[in-house]
């Protein structure tokens, strides 16, 4: 039986890959299937690992420095699916300027072949 710590570890691996701008580590976390979905703040929906991977590569290329801290709101596990709802606290340095933003995110994971994979990431900006 899966416990919250397993899901939280995969979620943490996702955010560490994001911070390190490591596409290989990102690919190890994401399901490579065509059913994976990703919605970055302000972007259209991306379907399938190919489109999702391309988006991460573009983000990594255009983001010199990024830090992400998360505030977990809830973790739920149901059979072969799990989800985390959280707040992303993002700090970036772009063109020498420090930019801070907060997003509300949902990450959905599926248990495939004995391992949890991210199959859905949706982040929306929190407007103040």
From TrEMBL:
SUPFAM superfamilies: NTF2-like. InterPro entries: NTF2-like_dom_sf, SnoaL-like. Transmembrane segments: none annotated. Residues 7-126 form the SnoaL-like domain. Signal peptide: none annotated. It comes from the Bacteria. PANTHER family: NUCLEAR TRANSPORT FACTOR 2 (NTF2) FAMILY PROTEIN. This is DUF4440 domain-containing protein. It comes from Fischerella thermalis CCMEE 5268.
């Amino acid at each position: 039986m899966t416990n919250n710590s397993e899901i939280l570890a995969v979620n943490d691996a996702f955010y560490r890959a994001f911070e390190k701008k490591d596409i290989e580590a990102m690919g190890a976390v994401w399901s490579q299937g065509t059913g994976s979905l990703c919605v970055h703040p302000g972007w259209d929906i991306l379907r399938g690992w190919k489109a999702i991977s391309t988006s991460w590569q573009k983000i990594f290329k255009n983001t010199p420095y990024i830090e992400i801290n998360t505030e977990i709101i809830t973790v739920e596990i149901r059979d072969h699916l799990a989800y985390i709802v959280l707040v992303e606290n993002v700090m970036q340095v772009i063109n020498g300027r420090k930019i801070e933003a907060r997003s509300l995110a949902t990450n959905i994971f599926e248990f495939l072949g004995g391992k949890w994979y991210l199959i859905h990431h949706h982040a929306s900006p929190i407007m103040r």
